[in-house]
Amino acid sequence: MSTISIVPQQLEVLKYGSLDSPQALQSIEDTLLALYKAMTTIDPKMARNAPESPVGSGRRGSWGDGGIGSMRALQERKEGYQKDTYSFLARMKQFMTIKFGAEVVELAKSSKNSPVSPEQPKLLGHDSAYVSLYRFSGLIAFTKDVDLEEYYGLQKLYERPVSGLFQDEFREHVLAWKKVTKKPISDEIDLRKLPAYE
C-alpha cells in the first residue's frame, strides 16, 4: 500500500513548484516518480513496455480497470492521480511553450552576434540550447510514459519555433557559400589581357 499512497502535501509541488528552480525541479521529479509507481501499481497496463490491450486504442495512460484497480478505493485514488497528472502536464506544456520560444530567441541572437569568416561560412552549433533544455528531460520522459499524445504535442511545441530558425540559418549558410564561390580569386590571371597569338 505504501507504493500507491502519496500524501496531498507531496503533490503540491506539482501545482506550485518552480520549473526553473533546480531544487524544485528535483522535488517535482521525485514526486512524478512516486506518482508513476503508484499509477502503474494500480493500473499495470500503464507501465513502460506493458503489453497492449486488445481493447481500445492501445494508448498508454488509458487508466484501465483491470487487476486490483477494480477495487473502489483504488479506483478513486487512480482518478485523483489521473487528475493530478493531467493538471501537471497542462502546466508543463504552458511552461515549455515559453521555454522553447525563449531558447530559439537566444539562439537567433547568438547566431547574429557570432563572428564568422566571410571566406569560410559555417553553421553554428546549438549546444547551449540543448544543455539548457536537457534538465527537463525527466519531465519529458514522464510525459512520454503516461501519455504519448501529450508527448507528441511537446515535440510539436519544440519543432515549430526551431524549424523556422534552422531554415533561416541554413538558407543564410547556402547564400554565404554562393557568394564565396562567385568571388574572383585575386591572383587569377585575367585571360582578356593575354597577348593574342597569330
Describe this structure in words.
This protein has 198 residues and is mostly helical. The protein has one domain. 63% of the residues lie in helices and 0% in strands. The protein has 6 helices and no strands. Helix 1 crosses helix 2 (22-42), helix 3 runs antiparallel to helix 4 and helix 5 crosses helix 6 (148-182). The radius of gyration is 27 Å and the shape is elongated.
Short description:
The chain is mainly alpha-helical and 198 residues long. It contains 6 helices and no strands.
Shape category: elongated
Q: Could you estimate the helical fraction of the residues in percent?
A: 55-70%
What's the gyration radius in Å? 27 Å
Structural class: mainly alpha
* Major pleated sheet: none
Low-confidence stretches: 53-59
Our count of domains comes out at: 1
SS element count, helices: 6
Order of helices and strands: HHHHHH
> pLDDT average, as an integer?
76
What proportion of the residues form beta strands (DSSP E)? Answer: under 5%
Number of strands: 0
Give the terminus-to-terminus CA distance.
Answer: 104 Å
Describe the secondary structure blueprint for this structure.
Blueprint: H1 8-16, H2 22-42, H3 72-113, H4 127-134, H5 137-146, H6 148-182
Helix pairs in contact: 1-2, 2-3, 2-5, 3-4, 3-6, 5-6
Task: Supply database-style keywords.
elongated, 63% helix, 6 helices, 198 residues
